[in-house]
């Protein structure tokens, strides 16, 4: 923290995103302002879009944003919240994601934990698997590891098998490769063989299948990495109930980056 009487230094930072993404977000903000008939804002639509991308992609805090854009911290918070909600409203729902996955040869399903600050009501958010507090997000990838969809964020204590995404994929007949955490899912979910304590060791054939399965499934880790390139998800410092909107906003921005929303 700065010493009493010290001034805050502002700085410029690069944001590794395309101008198309900035322009698309600025258009959304501009349309919302016209809808609400806003006559004046501290920042233009383009500057607000830049501020939001700095927060989501670079993980800049509200204090840093306020200093860099010469606005108040509360104003920075309000700009981010407004823009996240606009972006989240454009994200694909479960039905659309499953329909897109159905056009793939197969999909890869993985789970990731988004760390959060500790809360007063900690128990629902504690993941025994990861041994930390966080939010559970399921990530769906295509065969080459591109991000297809991410589920709503649920408390870390929620098991992977309870997510509705699995039932939807099975009902649509989508062939899915997943890790051992999804064993017992059934349907079209394919998991590696798992050795049980009181059963014979895995055969050489089963081990070979597991190695092949792991090589293919490893591509799904690219989708998780893509999600985590948005540094706001490195550790959420907001209310956990806002996590789903943030994940959905990131999905929309990632779709714009990959030109799914062009035209």
Structure description:
- With 263 residues, this protein is α/β, with parallel strands linked by helices.
- It has 2 domains: 14-89 and 239-263, no CATH class; 94-228, no CATH class.
- The chain is built from 9 helices and 7 strands, in the order H-H-H-H-H-E-E-E-E-E-H-E-E-H-H-H.
- The chain has helices at residues 19-36, 45-58, 62-69, 73-88, 94-101, 164-171, 204-217, 220-228, 243-257; strands spanning 107-115, 126-127, 132-141, 147-150, 154-155, 176-177, 189-190.
- Strands 1, 2, 3, 4, 5, 6 and 7 form a 7-stranded mixed beta sheet that branches.
- A hairpin with a 4-residue loop joins strand 2 and strand 3 (132-141).
- Helix 2 (45-58) crosses helix 4 (73-88), helix 3 crosses helix 4 (73-88) and helix 4 packs across helix 9 (243-257).
- It is elongated.
- The mean pLDDT is 86.
Count of separate DSSP helical elements: 9
Strand content: 5-15%
- Specify the biggest β-sheet: 7 strands, mixed
Query: Cα distance, first to last residue?
Result: 46 Å
Tell me the total number of β-strands: 7
User: How many distinct folded domains?
Assistant: 2
Order of helices and strands: HHHHHEEEEEHEEHHH
Task: Provide mean pLDDT, rounded.
Answer: 86
Low-confidence stretches: none
Q: How does the overall form come out from the CA principal axes?
A: elongated
* Structural class by helix and strand composition: alpha/beta
Helix content: 40-55%
The whole-angstrom Rg is: 21 Å
């Amino acid at each position: 923290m700065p010493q009493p009487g010290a001034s805050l230094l502002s700085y410029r930072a690069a944001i590794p995103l395309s101008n198309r993404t900035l322009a698309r977000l600025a258009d959304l903000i501009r349309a919302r302002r016209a809808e609400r008939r806003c006559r004046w804002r501290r920042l233009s639509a383009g500057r607000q879009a830049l501020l939001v991308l700095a927060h989501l992609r670079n993980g800049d805090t509200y204090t840093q944003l306020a200093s860099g854009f010469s606005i108040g911290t509360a104003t920075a918070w309000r700009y981010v919240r407004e823009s996240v909600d606009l972006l989240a409203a454009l994200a694909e729902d479960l039905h659309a994601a499953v329909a897109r996955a159905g056009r793939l040869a197969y999909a890869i399903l993985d789970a990731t934990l988004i760390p959060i600050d500790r809360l007063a009501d900690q128990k629902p958010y504690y993941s025994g698997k990861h041994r930390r507090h966080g939010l559970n997000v399921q990530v769906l990838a295509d065969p080459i590891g591109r991000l297809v969809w991410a589920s709503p964020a649920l408390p870390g204590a929620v098991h992977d098998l309870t997510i509705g995404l699995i039932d939807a994929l099975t009902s649509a007949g989508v062939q899915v490769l997943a890790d051992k955490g999804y064993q017992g899912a059934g349907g079209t979910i394919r998991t590696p063989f798992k050795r049980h304590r009181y059963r014979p060791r895995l055969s050489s054939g089963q081990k070979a299948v597991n190695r092949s399965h792991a090589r293919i499934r490893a591509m799904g880790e690219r989708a998780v990495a893509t999600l985590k390139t948005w540094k706001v998800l490195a550790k959420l410092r907001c209310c956990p109930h806002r996590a789903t909107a943030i994940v959905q906003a990131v999905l929309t921005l990632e779709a714009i980056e990959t030109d799914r929303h062009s035209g």
